[in-house]
């Protein structure tokens, strides 16, 4: 179609499917080819399809195509989408585009871009349906019909005074139900006990509010409930994905990436991974020093050596499990710092139960292991496993709580980090249990 410049078929291609599907089919095209295809559809469809392109493709199109035409597209984008794409452009290109778009859209971008990443203001849109409290239901429906093409969502209709202070909310469903008495004023049916957020509020806290109250959108207000914008459910989904990705990186001992994997340079990836590898290397070095301190004892009781990986992996795995459970529970609001005692007691019981199960299996293996001279000597393995698993569950549960208390991200207390600590603790416990059971002389 593109080779033949078949305008009718290209125009049909742009509108035949959902814009997201159309954007997927166009990902293999170059920026020039993509823009040629979009030229055969109307401006509204062009904006919709463009919004579903990857950030890389959007930036490439904005950087290479005719600035005047591109500025028209940018001006028609949703305010939050426009802010997201413009802030990643080169300063010179950004300035050029801002000078070409209407003053209202330019001011809107500058207002939204002032909020730091990770805050409610950074993900809100300034376009939302506004109604006056004195309107009747019939008048409100007429007004919404007029506004419906301008705004991203009209599920929630916000009632404001003349100075944009938030008074209440009515849903589209309430308006339709209210048509039985169309002369009723909005002030008589609107909800006034609303869940709101501040523009500088952490986006994770906003997600918790929306999830807890099952909202489709949440208003962003500043002092005296002056309304600045709304955060819609699709933006909340983006935040959830972003936070989940960040937590997954941190729990895997990788600093979060600012860009996608393929767009992040090898040097940047190496740094973000290497900084954690150096920390984990330090813990591994401490483990080596701990083993070296017991070298004489290990030489005397050689059969202890094969059980070292079993001991430290059991502790590390149990600690990683606990850390994952606690970090997830904290992030979803299932537990708070006030639950610290209950968490510790539960993990202590879990350590006892899990440790007992592993200890029984460990004892059965140790009894028949070559070099273990007695049933008494074999007790070193199960007792160690019990103590190490308890230490693992307690460490994995306490450290995320400590990080939360310090105001840090609990996900920074990643599984490899917990495992590194437990490796050292496991060696110390193992050797001291062996000293106690086998009558070894203490380390000099």
Q: What distance lies between the first and last C-alpha atoms, to the nearest angstrom?
A: 83 Å
Q: What is the second-level CATH architecture of the largest domain?
A: Orthogonal Bundle
Task: Sum up the overall morphology in one term.
Answer: elongated
Total tally of structural domains: 3
Strand segment count: 5
Unreliably modeled segments: none
Order of helices and strands: HHHHHHHHHHEHEEHHHEEHHHHHHHH
**Averaging pLDDT over every residue, what do you get?**
82
Helical coverage, percent range? 55-70%
CATH superfamily of the largest domain: SLC41 divalent cation transporters, integral membrane domain
Number of helical segments with 4 or more residues: 22
Which strand order does the major sheet show? 1-2-3
- Beta fraction: 5-15%
Q: Give the CATH topology of the largest domain.
A: Tetracycline Repressor, domain 2
CATH class of the largest domain, anyone?
Mainly Alpha
Class from secondary-structure proportions: mainly alpha
Question: How many strands, which pairing sense, and closed or not: the largest β-sheet?
Answer: 3 strands, mixed
Radius of gyration: 30 Å
Give an account of the 3D structure:
The protein is mainly alpha-helical and 444 residues long. The chain has helices spanning 7-16, 19-25, 31-38, 43-51, 55-64, 67-76, 79-86, 91-100, 103-113, 120-123, 137-147, 172-177, 186-189, 203-213, 233-251, 266-293, 295-300, 308-331, 340-367, 375-378, 380-405, 415-438, and strands at residues 130-132, 156-160, 166-171, 217-221, 227-232. The chain folds into 3 domains: 7-114, MgtE N-terminal fold (Alpha Horseshoe), CATH 1.25.60; 130-238, CBS-domain; 266-438, SLC41 divalent cation transporters, integral membrane domain (Tetracycline Repressor, domain 2, Orthogonal Bundle), CATH 1.10.357.20. The chain contains 22 helices and 5 strands. It starts with 6 loop residues before the first helix and ends in a 6-residue tail after the last helix. The model has no long low-confidence stretch (mean pLDDT 82).
């Amino acid at each position: 179609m593109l080779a033949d410049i078949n305008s009718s078929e290209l125009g049909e291609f742009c509108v035949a499917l959902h814009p997201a599907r159309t954007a997927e089919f166009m990902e293999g095209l170059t920026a020039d080819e993509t823009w040629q295809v979009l030229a055969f559809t109307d401006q509204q469809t062009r904006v919709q399809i463009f919004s579903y392109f990857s950030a890389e493709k959007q930036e490439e199109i904005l950087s290479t195509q005719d600035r005047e035409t591109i500025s028209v597209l940018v001006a028609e984008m949703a305010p939050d989408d426009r802010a997201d794409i413009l802030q990643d452009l080169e300063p010179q290109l950004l300035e050029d585009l801002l000078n070409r778009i209407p003053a209202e859209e330019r001011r809107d971008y500058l207002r939204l871009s002032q909020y730091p990443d990770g805050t409610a203001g950074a993900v809100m849109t300034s376009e939302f349906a506004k109604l006056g409290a004195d309107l009747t239901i019939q008048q409100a429906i007429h007004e919404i019909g007029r506004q419906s093409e301008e705004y991203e969502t009209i599920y929630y209709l916000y009632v404001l005074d003349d100075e944009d202070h938030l008074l209440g909310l009515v849903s589209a469903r309430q308006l339709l139900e209210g048509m039985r008495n169309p002369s009723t004023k909005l002030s008589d049916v609107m909800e006034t006990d609303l869940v709101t957020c501040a523009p500088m509020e952490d986006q994770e806290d906003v997600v918790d509010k929306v999830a807890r109250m099952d909202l489709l959108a949440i208003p962003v207000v500043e002092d005296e409930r002056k309304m600045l914008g709304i955060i819609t459910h699709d933006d909340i989904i983006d935040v959830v994905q972003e936070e989940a990705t960040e937590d997954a990186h941190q729990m895997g001992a990788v600093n979060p990436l600012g860009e996608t994997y393929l767009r992040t340079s090898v040097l940047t990836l190496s740094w973000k991974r290497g900084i954690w590898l150096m920390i984990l290397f330090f813990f591994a070095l401490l483990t080596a020093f701990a083993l070296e301190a017991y070298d004489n004892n290990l030489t005397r009781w050689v059969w202890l050596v094969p059980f070292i990986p079993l001991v430290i992996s059991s502790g590390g795995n149990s600690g990683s499990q606990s850390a994952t459970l606690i970090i997830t529970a904290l992030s979803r609001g299932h537990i708070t710092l006030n639950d610290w005692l209950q968490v510790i007691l539960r993990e202590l019981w879990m350590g006892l139960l899990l440790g007992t199960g592993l200890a029984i299996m460990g004892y059965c293996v140790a009894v028949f292991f070559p070099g273990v001279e007695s049933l008494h000597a074999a007790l070193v393995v199960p007792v160690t496993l019990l103590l190490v698993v308890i230490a693992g569950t307690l460490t994995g549960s306490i450290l995320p709580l400590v990080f939360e208390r310090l105001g840090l991200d609990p996900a920074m207390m990643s599984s490899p980090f917990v495992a590194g600590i437990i490796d050292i603790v496991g060696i110390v416990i193992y050797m001291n249990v062996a000293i106690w059971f086998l009558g070894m002389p203490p380390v000099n």
